[in-house]
Design brief:
six-stranded antiparallel beta barrel, serine-type endopeptidase activity, mainly beta, signal, Peptidase_S1_PA_chymotrypsin, Trypsin_dom, Thrombin, subunit H
């Protein structure tokens, strides 16, 4: 009897089977993973890069995600098979919305946000009573030989040095512009997102981090490093957010223009562990180089990933737009995906990437003429998984929003000199 596959035992015993079962799904997965040759599926099975789609006679497609494993099978055909015809293009169901191709990645990619203690980005941990802000007396160091001005990285740390780091831990105060962002009422110590200090009173982050809870009270920690322990060479500074401005063209579905401006209630004090990051000019074209992304997010994608306690750093290469779009089209985003103009890309190396919980964190790239000095190139936005070969992460292109950031600063009578210091970057159109 001809061997074929059905899913009746996964659905209901009331659903009639269409053929005799010879193999279960575990056996199929095992054969696919161990086979060294091409896989000959039955005529009623459509090849797909992520799913095996079974088309029983006279029925709707039944789809199974085989333990979330991704197989490198042949691409989906452009037109119909088995004597049928498709007037347009055959694509996986999740790349089609109400009969139209999804070219933006909406509802397909993975947003770099911390789900929090409730296990879902749709839920928040809330307590009935307000808590007062942290009233500890902070005494940040303000006297040292560390260069002043935006974007100065401290590669050897300040006050202590980690040796033999195995989990990409950053040195203490290595990236002094890095801040953690969390809801003020959250008991959870883990930040919701990261951000970058551009002025003692201003932070930029991803809009998707704060847009849903814009009216809640948020807090920022500058100089943070170990999010669990408070015994650090220099204490962090915790400040409430006074106002949040979301870019007017932010689209939460596909994360277009995913940037937010946070204005703090009181300015933080610049010191050895707290400093601002430089910003590129409007429309600056990033050059090929290796950059750093930082955050307290997961070390790998999925349930097995662990959140970092100490700030992590990951060095990744800048990826040109055309190469990025080409590589992303080979993922579940599909061959019609179009990378929006507000994005840039970096990464694509195994085990090196931003991940869940890193949303809003900065991607910083080195200045050509000044050693250990950096500018804010991107903001962690989204990706397809984390740290896979030739799958870059997607970042907000900060250079596309420099004029908007300057406008927000002027509205609050803040000087832009904190991030604009003749760092040698010229716009290239």
């Amino acid at each position: 009897m001809k061997r074929c596959i059905t899913l009746w035992f996964l659905l209901s015993i009331s659903i009639p089977s269409y053929c005799q079962i010879d193999l279960d799904l575990d056996q199929i997965v095992s054969e696919i993973e161990t086979s060294n040759s091409s896989i000959d599926l039955e005529p009623n099975i459509t090849r797909n890069t992520e799913f095996i789609i079974i088309n029983p006679p006279n029925s709707n497609n039944i789809v199974t995600n085989l333990n979330e494993k991704v197989f490198s099978l042949d691409p989906v055909p452009l037109n119909g098979t088995n004597g049928t015809s498709c007037e347009f293009a055959c694509v996986p169901f999740y790349q089609c919305n109400n009969g139209s191709l999804v070219t933006t990645g909406e509802n397909i990619f993975d947003i770099r946000v911390n789900d929090g203690p409730c296990g879902s980005a749709l839920l928040t941990c809330c307590q009935p009573k307000d808590r007062t802000t942290d009233d500890r007396i902070l005494s940040p160091s303000t006297t040292s030989s560390i260069p002043r001005g935006c974007g100065h990285r401290n590669p050897d740390g300040v006050g202590l040095t980690i040796t033999g780091a195995k989990d990409n831990e950053a040195q203490f105060a290595e990236f002094p512009w890095m801040v953690s962002i969390s809801r003020d009422l959250d008991n959870n110590q883990r930040p919701s997102c990261g951000g970058a200090l551009i002025h003692p009173s201003a932070v930029i982050t991803a809009a998707h981090c704060v847009a849903a809870d814009k009216n809640q009270r948020w807090k920022v920690r500058a100089g943070e490093w170990d999010i669990i322990k408070t015994i650090e060479p220099i204490p962090h500074q915790e400040v409430l957010v006074e106002s949040i401005t979301i870019h007017k063209d932010f689209y939460s579905g596909a994360l277009f223009n995913d940037i937010a401006f946070l204005y703090l209630t009181t300015p933080v004090k610049i010191g050895d562990n707290v400093n601002t990051i430089c910003l590129p000019p409007q429309n600056y074209q990033h050059r090929p180089t290796r950059c750093f992304t930082t955050g307290w997010g997961k070390d790998k994608f999925g349930q097995k990933g662990q959140y970092h306690v100490i700030l992590k750093k990951v060095d990744i290469p800048f990826v040109p737009r055309d190469i990025c779009q080409e590589n992303l089209r080979k993922t579940r985003l599909g061959r019609f995906f179009e990378l929006h103009s507000s994005f840039m890309c970096a990464g694509g190396e195994i085990g090196k990437d931003a991940c869940n919980g890193d949303g809003g964190s900065p991607l910083v790239c080195p200045l050509e003429k000044e050693k250990w000095r950096y500018y804010h190139a991107g903001i962690v936005a989204w990706g397809i998984g984390c740290g896979d070969r030739n799958v870059p992460g997607v970042y907000v292109d900060v250079a596309k929003f420099r004029d908007w950031i300057d406008e927000q600063m002027k509205l609050r009578n803040l000087e832009t000199v904190s991030y604009d210091q003749n760092i040698g970057l010229e716009p290239r159109f």
